[in-house]
């Protein structure tokens, strides 16, 4: 057996880090091979490598380790990329007892305990294991700055630890393993800070600190970088401190797709789209695989419509220019019937299909009027009477989807927790009279209680202090969006589909009024700014190292924000824009690299589903 080893990271682009690991594995093992994965490393590989890229490395077979055994293939070499779990070690032992492949090259995503290495060595009686390496890819890179450490039971991130001690402990261990592997990939040991008052944040911070600073201190000692650079910082946050961001309607491409359709590890399930071709039933949305998506993933809905028209124009002939098309359906039909279907035409069909689904949802659900009210409630100066009137008009309208009525009520309840109890009760009465299921109303009340102001640390609505209220007012003045209703009426009839279901109208409606629908800035942005500027209070965000000396004034040049309970694509967009500004030397993020991680990526649907699980578990915990 070869000794465990690794290599230097490929930089601070997280996709590049994982690609470098995989390319090195496949390059080192020459000849025909099988890539043997487990459930979690399948996600790791599929988000950074396409099938065609894997084939370029003489990989003739990709299999799951836990799948039923197939025929012997002794002419192939097995490249095993696996998490070093007890279950995987047992499966490899069974594999070595009756080998299917001629050679085994073992690459583990994390540190392998000596005892487990010994177990493997004892079973390798035929000496078919040619190497054992540790390549620290125990996390999933969605984008260059955005990663996940997925939990098998994501709702555990939102519920009290004592309700399910065993599974909650496993969740802490999984997060510790994943983030520790990231540190080893980046060759950095981080100063760990966490959100006060969050039990799971504190437990995770202490677990990670114990591993990296005490138990395996030498492994995580990468020396000082000097040059006035402050220690990298890992900021651990609780999703419940900001329940607003995952509940809002979204108006940029990636975030809209996730909110309306759903993205699962860069893949979109389109099986339910009427008439979809089988080969397009799953769409890959990956910035490193799709140049159009890379360019437009953060584009607003209006600009996106024009970009998709341009894509269709490029795929067609001059005679059939996209300028002739008035509807998305015409575009889709044209692309589908083009002769000599090329890869680029496939990309075009994918984006036209997605744009069609988004456009239909916007029109059917009246999302423009709904979103205008959402943004006004959570972003503008408190105006209880006006906001209640606007919310009541939509909640009382049965033409609005039930899920949207509940979501809007929840946002109103969060904003006016102290002063709007009478109005909230009236909204809940309206929903009850409409026949909304009692369990859904109970969920709404549960979320309001779990995310109440006294349980939060951050200033969610910029209204806790005189300075924050002043800053909020100044920001609104600069944006020039003092009143949403003077720019767009909230009458949902204004956004009913036109007779021709025109793409041009439905997307151009958004152009020129982007501020109305995207006023909201995730609180994460303010937290990161205060952290980089050295203004984030240690009383609210203490260090995991309890006896640490006062923090040095050197600003960090690398910051990882890890959100237990899930990130959002709105936050990922904000971090990407901060990094871009930093690369241009603009603003407070100049010279700073920001990374965003979490246990999942939330939409309003998934966020409420997680809380539904928590609410059910509460009954068993009592």
From TrEMBL:
Entries under Gene3D superfamilies matching the protein: 1.25.40.60, 3.40.50.1910, 3.40.50.2060, Syntaxin Binding Protein 1, Chain A, domain 2 (3.90.830.10)
One Pfam family this sequence matches: Sec1
GO BP, sorted A to Z: vesicle-mediated transport
Highest taxon listed in the record's lineage: Eukaryota
Family label: Belongs to the STXBP/unc-18/SEC1 family.
Protein name: Vacuolar protein sorting-associated protein 45
């Amino acid at each position: 057996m070869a000794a465990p080893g690794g290599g230097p990271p490929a930089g601070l682009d997280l996709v590049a880090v994982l690609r470098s690991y995989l390319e090195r594995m496949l390059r080192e093992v020459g000849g025909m091979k099988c890539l043997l994965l487990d459930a979690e490393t399948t996600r790791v590989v599929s988000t950074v490598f396409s099938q065609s890229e894997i084939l370029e490395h003489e990989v003739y077979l990709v299999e799951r380790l836990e799948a039923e055994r197939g025929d012997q293939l002794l002419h192939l070499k097995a490249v095993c990329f696996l998490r070093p779990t007890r279950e995987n070690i047992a499966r490899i032992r069974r594999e070595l007892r009756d080998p299917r492949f001629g050679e085994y090259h073992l690459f583990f995503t994390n540190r392998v305990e000596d005892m487990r290495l010994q177990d493997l060595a004892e079973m390798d009686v035929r000496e078919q294991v040619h190497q054992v390496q540790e390549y620290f890819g125990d996390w999933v890179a969605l984008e260059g700055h955005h990663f996940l450490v997925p939990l098998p039971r994501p709702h555990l991130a939102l519920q009290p630890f004592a309700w399910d001690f065993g599974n909650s402990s496993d969740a802490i261990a999984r997060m510790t393993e994943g983030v520790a592997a990231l540190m080893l990939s980046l060759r950095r040991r981080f100063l760990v800070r966490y959100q006060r008052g969050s039990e799971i944040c504190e437990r995770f911070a202490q677990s990670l600190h114990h591993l990296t600073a005490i138990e395996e201190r030498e492994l995580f000692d990468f020396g000082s970088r000097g040059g006035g650079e402050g220690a990298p910082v890992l900021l651990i946050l609780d999703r419940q401190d900001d329940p607003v961001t995952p509940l809002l309607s979204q108006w940029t491409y990636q975030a809209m797709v996730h909110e309306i359709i759903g993205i699962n590890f860069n893949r979109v399930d389109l099986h339910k789209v009427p008439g979809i071709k089988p080969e397009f039933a799953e769409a890959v949305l990956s910035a490193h695989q799709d140049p159009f998506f890379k360019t437009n993933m953060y584009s607003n809905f209006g600009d996106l419509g024009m970009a998709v028209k341009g894509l269709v124009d490029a795929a067609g002939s001059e005679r059939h220019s996209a300028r002739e098309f008035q509807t998305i359906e015409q575009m889709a039909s044209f692309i589908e019937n083009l002769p000599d279907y090329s890869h680029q035409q496939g990309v075009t069909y994918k984006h036209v299909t997605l744009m069609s689904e988004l456009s239909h949802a916007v029109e059917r659900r009246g999302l423009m009027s709904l979103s205008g009210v959402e943004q006004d409630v959570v972003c503008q100066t408190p105006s209880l009477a006006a906001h209640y009137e606007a919310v009541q008009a939509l909640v009382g309208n049965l033409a609005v989807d039930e899920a949207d009525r509940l979501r809007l009520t929840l946002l109103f309840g969060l904003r006016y927790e102290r002063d709007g109890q009478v109005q909230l009760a009236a909204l809940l009465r309206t929903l009850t009279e409409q026949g909304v299921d009692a369990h859904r109303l109970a969920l709404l009340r549960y979320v309001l209680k779990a995310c109440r102001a006294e349980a939060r640390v951050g200033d969610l609505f910029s209204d806790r202090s005189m300075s924050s209220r002043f800053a909020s007012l100044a920001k609104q003045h600069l944006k020039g969006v003092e009143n949403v209703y003077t720019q767009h009426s909230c009458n949902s009839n204004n956004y009913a589909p036109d007779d021709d279901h025109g793409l041009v109208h439905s997307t151009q409606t958004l152009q020129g009024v982007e501020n109305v629908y995207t006023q909201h800035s995730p609180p994460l942005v303010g937290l990161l700014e205060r952290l980089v500027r050295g203004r984030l209070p240690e009383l609210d965000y203490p260090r995991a190292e309890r006896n640490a000396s006062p923090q040095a004034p050197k600003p960090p040049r690398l910051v990882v924000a890890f959100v237990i309970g899930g990130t959002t694509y709105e936050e990922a967009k904000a971090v990407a824009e901060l990094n871009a500004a930093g690369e241009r030397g603009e603003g407070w993020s100049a010279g700073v690299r920001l990374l965003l991680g979490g246990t999942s990526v939330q939409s309003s649907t998934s966020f409420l589903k997680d809380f539904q699980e928590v609410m059910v578990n509460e009954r068993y915990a009592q």
